[in-house]
Design brief:
The chain is an alpha/beta fold. The protein has three domains: 238 residues, Metallo-dependent phosphatases (Purple Acid Phosphatase, chain A, domain 2, 4-Layer Sandwich); 62 residues; 64 residues. Helices cover 34% and strands 21% of the residues. The chain has a six-stranded mixed beta sheet with strand order 4-3-2-1-11-12, covered by helices on one side. A six-stranded mixed beta sheet has the order 5-6-7-8-10-9, covered by helices on one side. The longest helix has 29 residues.
Length: 413
């Protein structure tokens, strides 16, 4: 049996709020489906985040509908929900508009195709992580009755995202008796051997974020075509013809020598201009003239050196911390600016644990509430109102810690 393992297509995503980028996402998905059909895959796995949200634009729904029309029963389609297209409050996912099977919305769900077991579970995280581990153990027991099995999920595994709060499963918590682990969530395509099977993230089909450019250069963007006929899965890497994105760094005085690699599609350029006492207005004007018609869009940043504190306003003197504090304050306010600055110092030095402790200490202090958090009154009793207040405060603290850890993960990764 041959399967096409595709993930993180994010239909409906409009990067940089540019219509062409939304169309690029659709084009990559359609190309992947065309190749899967050409290669005669029997099963199409969509391992989560097929849509960028649970309420995608009409065009995204139309593109998905047309893809299913082309498939027309030539491939069995199995999908799970990711963190992006999982509806809130038990709503209906957009997939339900079509004749496509969504596995494992409320727990592991299995189906058998040509003697091979396929199990799927949609994204679970936060307080449902314990339940997720239980479902993994349940699938291991079911899979023990089959010679070959495939597990489909959209989860983060510690080995690939080794940051506190960023993963739901450790390697040892993945079930055994699995031939192929078809996962989504991590946008970098990669595969390793785990237990007696092959674990793989198919990666996203397009460059969704700037930090994906480096891995795109090394590994490309696309999906895996997996042959299950042999003793163990055989993976074929399929690359898609996506719009390139380049990162270039150049000194301001050498700007005229900037070289943009040739490409079939006008690229997206992320340009960093370095130098001392840069005339930013002049640079912006020159870059606009140079790049007009040669790129789809560009993003420019400046790396200025040799700024003397005496030339800065009094409010931003004091070196890098002074400048950062001013920037953080303008966006976050004074109180959160101090937290952001402390986190930046720790994360820049690689002190992840210290950063976590700093964040937790901040929330402990911020949400102090004395007797309302659970201290008894003079008779040793506690009012229902105070208990409710205490529970609400604890809930806010947990939510705050989670948001800070997610933010720290994004900063670091």
């Amino acid at each position: 049996m041959r399967i096409a393992h595709i993930a993180d297509t994010h239909l409906g995503y409009r990067q940089y709020n540019i219509e062409e980028r939304e169309n690029d996402i659709y084009d990559a998905f359609c190309e992947a489906i065309e190749i899967a059909l050409k290669e005669r895959a029997e099963v199409l796995i969509l391992a989560g985040d097929t849509f960028d949200s649970a309420t995608p634009p009409v065009k995204a729904l139309h593109v998905f509908k047309e893809a299913l029309r082309k498939i027309d029963g030539r491939m069995e389609v199995l999908t799970v929900l990711g963190d992006h297209d999982m509806p809130r409050r038990r709503g209906m996912p957009p997939h339900k508009l079509f004749d496509v099977r969504v596995l494992g919305v409320h727990g592991i769900e299995c189906t058998e195709i040509n003697g091979i077991l396929f199990g799927g579970i949609s994204n679970l995280k936060g307080r449902y992580t314990a339940a997720l581990r239980g479902e993994m153990a349940k699938f291991e027991k079911i899979a023990s009755k089959y010679k070959k099995s495939v597990l489909i999920a959209h989860q983060a595994v510690e080995k690939f995202l080794p940051f506190e709060g960023a993963y739901e499963l450790r390697e040892g918590e993945l079930p055994g008796n699995v031939s192929y682990y078809a996962f989504g969530h991590v946008h970098s395509r990669q595969s390793i051997r785990i237990n007696d099977g092959i674990f793989a993230y198919a990666g996203s089909t397009e460059i969704m974020r700037k930090d994906e450019i480096s891995t795109w250069k090394k590994r490309g963007k696309g999906f895996y075509l997996v042959d299950l006929d042999g003793e163990e899965p055989l993976l074929h890497t399929i690359n898609l013809n996506i719009r390139p994105q380049f990162e270039e760094e150049v000194e301001a005085e050498a700007l005229n020598g900037l070289q943009i690699p040739e490409s079939e599609k006008p690229p997206i350029l992320h340009l960093t201009v370095g130098g001392m006492h840069i005339n930013r207005q002049k640079v912006l004007e020159n870059v606009e003239k140079m790049l007009r018609g040669r790129v789809l869009t560009y993003k420019i940043a400046f790396k200025e050196r040799g700024i003397s504190p005496s030339t800065l306003p009094e409010t931003v003197r004091g070196g890098g911390d002074g400048i950062l504090r001013e920037i953080f304050s303008s966006f976050l306010g004074e109180e959160l600016a101090e937290l952001a600055l402390s986190l930046h110092r720790n994360l820049s030095a690689g002190n992840i644990e210290d950063a976590i402790k700093t964040a937790e200490a901040f929330f402990e202090e911020r949400f102090k509430c004395g007797g309302a958090c659970g201290e008894g009154d003079a008779e040793g009793t506690q009012s229902a109102e105070k208990r409710a207040r205490g529970r609400e405060v604890e809930k806010r603290k947990r939510k705050g810690r989670k948001r800070v850890r997610e933010w720290m993960f994004k900063m670091w990764w």
